[in-house]
Specification:
It contains 10 helices and 14 strands. It is elongated.
Length: 291
């Protein structure tokens, strides 16, 4: 029986290659229900969420991985996030009508950024120009340029589910043998079809691709949609703006309304709310900024 909303890691015995298989079903439905994007844009978001979940599992960290694609075309920006616990969320800024076209044509000239925001310590970000027809190719190019790691991804999404498959070369000193091993695993992986990615179980997929290899499959890890927005986060933003700037906003409008781009939650603050927020944080005065 095919598992849903899980990530499965696997290793090749005696090869410097690791991999991941991913399915998003209920988590994809939960993520997309908050948005009313055109179908083609929604598909791109599904691929981005699959990519973020896969990439977050390639590193050991506590925090959030943020995949961001920025451009000047019909799609202006796309953000997909995954925590180290595989909690995903995302959004797109795009035109009302989005044709079924390549990511590069939809975004135009732009860039792809990968940010690691640890719970403790400083964030890390890498940025490279956007290249490739599809998101998978853009992410592969990011790793080739920024991380110097051979990485291949296969991503797909439809209205029902999103899925992904990743292989990545591990550090080794075997030289030419490693190159031959990678070339073989990559060639086998290149036979993956979207239909197989969406319908086959992880075990069936790995058997179909690598039945002549020694593959070690690890236990499934649950993936879910979860938004981490809260009134406290918005209050922190208001404090960072400073009392003077917030008062100016209240002059223009009786109530300040903040919308969460990830889950469409609305947070409203009237004059009394603002008085309470700044009274509880007396260190923030005037237009000083909280860092």
């Amino acid at each position: 029986m095919k598992e849903t909303d899980v990530l499965r890691r696997f290793l090749f015995d005696d090869l410097a290659v690791r991999g991941e298989w991913l399915n998003l079903t209920a988590s994809w439905q939960a993520a997309k229900q908050h948005h009313q994007y055109p179908e083609a844009a929604m598909q791109k978001l599904g691929e981005a969420l699959a990519a973020a979940a896969l990439l977050s599992a390639t590193i050991k960290f506590g925090g959030t991985l943020i995949l961001q694609v920025q451009g000047e075309g019909i799609i202006k920006s796309m953000v997909a996030q995954s925590t180290n616990n595989h909690e995903i969320r995302g959004w797109i800024r795009c035109a009302d009508t989005v044709p079924d076209d390549s990511l590069q044509n939809l975004l135009g000239e732009g860039y792809i950024a990968l940010t690691i925001e640890p719970k403790e310590g400083e964030p890390y970000q890498g940025i490279v120009p956007l290249t490739g027809e599809h998101l998978a190719g853009a992410v592969e190019n990011y790793f080739a340029q920024s991380e110097q790691l051979k990485t291949r991804l296969w991503l797909c999404a439809n209205e029902h589910q999103a899925a992904g498959f990743l292989i990545q070369e591990l550090p080794s000193e075997k030289g030419e043998q490693d190159q031959e091993d990678w070339a073989r695993i990559e060639a086998l992986s290149n036979t993956i079809s979207e239909e197989e990615l969406l319908t086959l179980s992880c075990e069936d997929m790995l058997h179909r691709l690598f039945h002549e290899e020694q593959v070690r499959l690890f236990a499934p890890e649950a993936v879910s949609f979860k938004c981490h927005c809260s009134p406290e986060q918005v209050e922190s933003t208001l404090l960072s703006l400073g009392r003077e700037a917030v008062n100016e906003l209240l002059v223009e409008q009786d109530t300040i309304v903040a919308d969460c781009e990830f889950c469409s939650a609305k947070y409203s603050f009237n004059k009394a709310d603002v008085e309470r927020i700044f009274a509880q944080n007396p260190v923030i005065k005037g237009s000083e900024t909280k860092h």
